[in-house]
């Protein structure tokens, strides 16, 4: 709200046109005014509600179009299924929630008050059956005496098993509001970043004033407005600014803002969160005002706005008064009545009663009268018109009653009459088809409280105003408790100037626009106590007596009140109910409202679609992916790919006629074991470790020694975490005195790089060592099998000596390839075969694969994937991810002897703790089923033979399995208690998950060529 | 959350990885110590596991892995999330240091 | 007054004027046999079991704010016992068994709803890890089922099977898992403990400890000094702060974990689902809101609120696995302070200080542990020895190297 | 003897489809060009040798390497700040390149790592380029904050990238260079294309000059 003055609203409205005519105004709009309003009468739009077709105009919201069509009943409430209408004209709407669109685009709980009308809009009421008018569940109203706050905690306990089978399904079906789509959301979303000096939140009078000031001063400004146009309450209440009509001022202000290159105005953009360091989140409804977004268009966009300062000019929300029948369709906030009349030229009622406890509400009288409606009566507990209005023509005839509204009688469509109880206790009934209510205004303190700041009570306006705002944020205008137009403009201007100055923008900000300063007088009235359900939280059906019941039962803290009654937990987050609820609690406990306090304000300010928060990151784009240098070549060959972290790796290369993966993998393994094959292992992490102290550095991060490694040699290394548990392994080669080439596992490349940088920069900055990732620079292939040398000799320059003497096991050096390329060659073996790893610059990776295929043709060279790689490493008893599981020590893996005793290294001390060196630890062993045709499965547990499996007898589990083509049976690695001393023991493999139970032998984990003859051959 | 990298300027927190309290210092471990493993294990236990878990301003390690790959030491209030000074780890650049670092 | 449909109906006749406080509001006495610091689920359950199982009724629960204001009131309400390591498995199953009879024990409907949990897996390695875990469960007498992709598709047809970045290969199901109404658990224990004589004292913040000859003899509070035979701490989230008053430093860090709830919608999701290739898990409350969450923000925090990157990360996970929720709106986000221990597993133990007992380090397993934590802590306080199912939750396990590290992440709390 | 061909292959061989994408009406809002054939060497000063490194660079390139996030154009290479006391030497791949001299010039004073194939370079320009960039980069690329010559090490899709700004193009529009890790190139290209479709995208590839 931005204050008021006595002048006319923004768009001059004309008398109600009950018999509308003319081609642009179809007859159905029975409650549309003949002229006026910010609607485009040249653009009629058809829409349907609950299957009934109606028309409205461009510029309408669904709510205003329904009002214009005389529709009052639009929803049913959550618990009692009471009929509900439209209460507000903004995003605080608690009642008028509808289901929009259909099918995969069905969208529950949309506020009719914020949904812009578009042609062929389809909306349906929700939470009713079979129809809105005849809702079977309204039978709940009869049970209302039982359905009080927290009733479900006291019952549904007997018999115990009825909860899941009977009671809960019943409750769940009854609960909820709309129905979500059950198909993938077909629309697109994205997310973007924006940066500015000053973010202005809310484009009403104060916000425009702030943006103008900061923009003129030279700051980079973003102004966000949730509505489809800026103006705020000016659009509904008008006023005179700088001697001109508000509409003219508004036009001038928006023109000026558009002319400033440093100012960006974002409409349909609602700020929903305030995060640390000046990060704000906003939702732009890019295409919600059309049926379906256009090609390449998103439906909504989430903005993260990084702002050095923010000025929150988010206005205020009018609050209801709690009295029996205050939820009837046709009971509407007074400001909303004015919005529908003035902005949308739609009459909420022909005979309107007003119930207000403050001066602002009185402007509704003028609005209705000007539009040709009738004022049935004004009920004001103060008993007379404010001084300002006493002289106004038309008001003289208005009936003013003291006291309060104590009941609302309902006709078929909504309010039929109201009952007014005077201060003397006498009641009278007054006919009216609409009741406008104003209980005062609550500044929108939510955004300013998102960092747990507490709002402060201000008696003069009987409302909370912002307290400790997040760093960098100021509030201005009605959000700051300034309720006159003049003050809003001044306050906004001052805030804009100050925020800009703090960002170093000190240009001429001009003067604040001027408007008159009306006094806002209010006499707090929270509740009219009378018989009947008086609602505090409309959507959750929380009544005044629920609040007092909670108090009686000891739920006195506001947070207990909220949780026990669900007050303020509905989709409006209590925007219209919280303050009333705690006022009633305050009265019941004899405390003041500030003593009672508020619940915590939490983002989002208004609900945000989950799809928007995900943006582009869904389906295949959920996470980025990494491709190996030979990816497209492998795809050509029909490889099956597997996700390994972010990488896509060739898992196996099926050939025509192969019946399953096992057949392909077995072929690949046998080809390697019998001849030669190759595998893209570029996914291994690769790090250049450079500088004179590189060797010393590696000595400290690895458990074994690297400073003594000769240039031209490679060594297997193992590193621990500082807690003594194994972190990663890999081979590291010394390519020059001051150059080591370190490799990591695929999974740990990132964490290891981070760890190494920590060691270099934090732990040992005295060491002269430099690190850089070389993972993506190199395409690396493992070439393995007895024919490896033959194959390599074909691609490598003949001058290079690949013999055992010329290139011994664990040798590492550069070689020239035929055709002029230089490669790095490492004689290392994961498969246990005679093998080399070769790396070439990544751009030649695909060429290398193709050339290996050509060179290896005589030997039947076979590309193999990660499955075959895994089979061969299990046959060789090499540990990998399943064994390096973050809980195993070097000794658990059989690598304890590698731990140097001559030096400190990361993890050395902690690895010595008693429980990590206990003799009964589970260590890596081999297992093979006694029955050679039995399939072994990972995750099966190991228990001693002849005992009953139980927590006490569970001795370990199978970590990795494969079908070994050379042994022609399933084999595996396992972590087994005291396993190394149990080779030859028959144990029970217990796998209840898969209903399997069989015997296996514990054995040496190296199943294949335990002497290592082949890899050295 | 925004973090002012001393090299890159203010950046989005998503570019950084968090390690935690920068107060614990890695103990020196003398290989030839005759005191037995206990004292060293006690010292490392303290370093690896025990935390002041400050409610207030804490010095902590952040790694600008999604940026310039520098380890940083930031002062940050764990109650308000507000950052104070952010400085580079001693070995972030090429400065030569006589002593071991943090 | 006993709660039942009959008492409810009777009360309705008198306009519900007859209900009295669910628990008393006593002034603190000078002395209690046991003082529990922390009026969350764990503290209140401890007091309840002390009174019910161990006959110790002169007990006070001190709460600095309103009961349930910590993590008991800001979690995602999931209960399950699908743990894989000795120490955890039996303990969480004890908890599950106590959940299963909670309503009858407490005469309070905490809406324990065993609609099951399915942890999805997306790789062979994940399947194997789940198989190991599921088998551990079965060996411990806990229900577990390993489902393949076809079975998952039949049960949860609305997940993304056709265009997933990380395809769903199957899942580990525990049918007895589910959710409970978190606040009701707090209120139910409070009422039941109160009925057995326990004093629940709200707005009473502990500001220090009193000692006699080194032994803890009581606490100083904002409502005066209270002497105690024994003092138990159940203040997860603020453990380090309270421990510091006694001069203790612990293997614990406080981290923020965010959670989210959507607008209420008609039933859409049957049980609890966790996404294995991102940070996302979800269930639907009886009221209709989708309750979902993901990973820690990743930095130490006492702020009870988090930041945008995790909001986005969680929603991206949600859309990746369940693209039908794109148009459902997130209604509220909140943050709890997780007492993150160095191995991801809790501590229920005596402290090195005589008379002071510790219940801490719940990471994000605290809610599901509530009943067993109360029982085990009560046992420890009453008997001075650990409960058999909590025997491995010792404080000295880190020094000894006997960590219980389900995730294998080591001493880095933000990775657990 | 078989002739082995060593064709250099771009990581974008599948994902880059030259031509117009997205909205087709009017001028393309974004142009996206892969720049092929680059040489890139990471130069990291050794401890205590930052000054010597700068001197050696000056001798070879005619300019000192930037000590803050900037890109400076030297004789045979552009020097792009990539972290404290380190930079990337970037040039078009050519037969007469003098990059071979780097090892000699920096011997003992800086460590080098060849990254010519570890990164993939693309160039983004056009009247709507900043709007597209705002969807995947959290950097403030406003003229006042990121003028020509500015550079940043940052992240896209949780992946490290180097971004630097060239002189404006002939059309007066800002030109942004984006260096991404090779294995991510396919994925990030798709992200960039998606962000630009609503503005109309012209995609192409070119050889570095």
Automatic annotation (TrEMBL), chain A:
<feature type="domain" description="Aminomethyltransferase C-terminal">
    <location>
        <begin position="924"/>
        <end position="1009"/>
    </location>
</feature>
<dbReference type="InterPro" id="IPR029043">
    <property type="entry name" value="GcvT/YgfZ_C"/>
</dbReference>
<feature type="domain" description="SoxA A3">
    <location>
        <begin position="531"/>
        <end position="615"/>
    </location>
</feature>
<dbReference type="Pfam" id="PF13510">
    <property type="entry name" value="Fer2_4"/>
</dbReference>
<dbReference type="Pfam" id="PF01571">
    <property type="entry name" value="GCV_T"/>
</dbReference>
<dbReference type="GO" id="GO:0046653">
    <property type="term" value="P:tetrahydrofolate metabolic process"/>
</dbReference>
<dbReference type="InterPro" id="IPR027266">
    <property type="entry name" value="TrmE/GcvT-like"/>
</dbReference>
<dbReference type="Pfam" id="PF12831">
    <property type="entry name" value="FAD_oxidored"/>
</dbReference>
<dbReference type="InterPro" id="IPR041117">
    <property type="entry name" value="SoxA_A3"/>
</dbReference>
<dbReference type="InterPro" id="IPR041854">
    <property type="entry name" value="BFD-like_2Fe2S-bd_dom_sf"/>
</dbReference>
<comment type="similarity">
    <text>Belongs to the GcvT family.</text>
</comment>
<dbReference type="InterPro" id="IPR036188">
    <property type="entry name" value="FAD/NAD-bd_sf"/>
</dbReference>
From TrEMBL, chain B:
<dbReference type="InterPro" id="IPR006279">
    <property type="entry name" value="SoxD"/>
</dbReference>
<dbReference type="GO" id="GO:0046653">
    <property type="term" value="P:tetrahydrofolate metabolic process"/>
</dbReference>
<dbReference type="GO" id="GO:0008115">
    <property type="term" value="F:sarcosine oxidase activity"/>
</dbReference>
<dbReference type="Pfam" id="PF04267">
    <property type="entry name" value="SoxD"/>
</dbReference>
<protein>
    <submittedName>
        <fullName>Sarcosine oxidase delta subunit</fullName>
    </submittedName>
</protein>
<dbReference type="InterPro" id="IPR038561">
    <property type="entry name" value="SoxD_sf"/>
</dbReference>
From TrEMBL, chain C:
<dbReference type="InterPro" id="IPR001763">
    <property type="entry name" value="Rhodanese-like_dom"/>
</dbReference>
<comment type="similarity">
    <text>Belongs to the SoxB family.</text>
</comment>
<dbReference type="GO" id="GO:0005737">
    <property type="term" value="C:cytoplasm"/>
</dbReference>
<keyword id="KW-0274">FAD</keyword>
<dbReference type="GO" id="GO:0046653">
    <property type="term" value="P:tetrahydrofolate metabolic process"/>
</dbReference>
<keyword id="KW-0288">FMN</keyword>
<keyword id="KW-0285">Flavoprotein</keyword>
<dbReference type="Pfam" id="PF01266">
    <property type="entry name" value="DAO"/>
</dbReference>
<keyword id="KW-0963">Cytoplasm</keyword>
<dbReference type="InterPro" id="IPR006278">
    <property type="entry name" value="SoxB"/>
</dbReference>
<keyword id="KW-0547">Nucleotide-binding</keyword>
<dbReference type="InterPro" id="IPR006076">
    <property type="entry name" value="FAD-dep_OxRdtase"/>
</dbReference>
Automatic annotation (TrEMBL), chain D:
<dbReference type="InterPro" id="IPR006222">
    <property type="entry name" value="GCVT_N"/>
</dbReference>
<dbReference type="InterPro" id="IPR027266">
    <property type="entry name" value="TrmE/GcvT-like"/>
</dbReference>
<protein>
    <submittedName>
        <fullName>Sarcosine oxidase gamma subunit</fullName>
    </submittedName>
</protein>
<feature type="domain" description="GCVT N-terminal">
    <location>
        <begin position="85"/>
        <end position="206"/>
    </location>
</feature>
<dbReference type="Pfam" id="PF01571">
    <property type="entry name" value="GCV_T"/>
</dbReference>
